[in-house]
Amino acid sequence: MTGATIGPIAGVLLAGGRSSRIGGGDKCLLPLRRKPLLAHAIERLKPQVSALVLNANGDSKRFASFGLPVIPDESDDSAGPLAGVLAGMEWADAEAPNMRFIVSVPTDTPFFPMNLVARLIEAQQGREVPAIAASEAGEHPVFGIWPVALAATLRRDLTSGLRKTLDWAHAQGAVTARFAPARIQGCEIDPFFNINESSDLAEAEALLAGS
């Protein structure tokens, strides 16, 4: 894996949102082709990283069957994806200090690239800066590689009220890795197509069924 050039990397699966547009609860546990969205995300990210953790709030026992460490946000003030990124950074610092970077991935995006991590690392060009994904639809900052050394900066900025992942990434000098459309059963789709509503889940089902 290209990631060997910067050492081992921890993958952080982000599932801390409230999923209000799809009825609440754990969106990542909704079934797609008879298995949870979270299982799809694990299958795609696990081969690309050295360790994998799940960022989720509430009782961690509901995720026990996935066999992953579960790390919550530090606070429950709806700080958004950046709170999960910080939780991942601090987990890596405490539990895997040899990992200088984490990669964040949301759990509602079942078609993200199998070469995501390698491409993000290539975009860094050896620099210790964040790198975020982009497609024809625009930038997707929740798909990013983040230096663990930025944890204190992120904590400070969250405390001062910053919430937008893209704004914070740009403030840290983030670079971009661009991805072409994915092909699913002969159809082109944005590789970062995410499931926000029931209609999106139905569309993903139809794509995988080839209909």
Description:
- The model has no long low-confidence stretch (mean pLDDT 92).
- α2 runs antiparallel to α4 (151-159).
- The strands form three sheets. Strands 5-4-1-6-8-7-9 form a seven-stranded mixed β-sheet, with helices on both faces. A two-stranded antiparallel sheet has the order 2-3. Strands 10-11 form a two-stranded antiparallel sheet.
- It is globular.
- It has a single domain (2-209), classed as Spore Coat Polysaccharide Biosynthesis Protein SpsA, Chain A, CATH 3.90.550.
- A hairpin with a 2-residue loop joins β7 and β8 (138-147).
- It starts with 8 loop residues before the first strand and ends with a helix.
- With 211 residues, the protein is an alpha/beta fold.
- 29% of the residues lie in helices and 23% in strands.
- The longest helix is centred in the middle third of the chain and has 15 residues, at 81-95.
